[in-house]
Specification:
Largest sheet: none
Protein name: Citrate transporter
Oligomer: single chain
Distance between the termini: 26 Å
Number of helices: 3
Strand content: under 5%
Radius of gyration: 18 Å
Keywords: Membrane, Transmembrane, Transmembrane helix
Helix content: over 70%
Transmembrane segments: 16-36, 48-66
Order of helices and strands: HHH
Length: 72
């Protein structure tokens, strides 16, 4: 039973560390206003066109999904 628990913890440790550091990294980026600058740049070019905002949302979601969903 003890080896089963140790093997389970070993197999999950890398993924858990990835999640912890990614949360810290993106929290720092969010606190610094990094995403706000990018979002304001995109929205200033779209001039509140609902269809363009929807299309941009799809592309951003697809890019984020391809980039970070390998850990889950």
């Amino acid at each position: 039973m003890v080896t089963f628990i140790k093997d389970g913890v070993k197999s999950v440790t890398d993924t858990a560390a990835l999640f912890v550091f990614s949360i810290l990294f993106f929290s720092v980026l969010n606190a610094s206003g990094f995403f706000t600058k990018i979002l304001n740049a995109f929205l200033s070019k779209m001039k509140a066109n609902v269809y363009q905002v929807c299309i941009l949302t799809v592309f951003i979601t697809a890019a984020v999904h391809l980039d970070g969903s390998g850990a889950s």
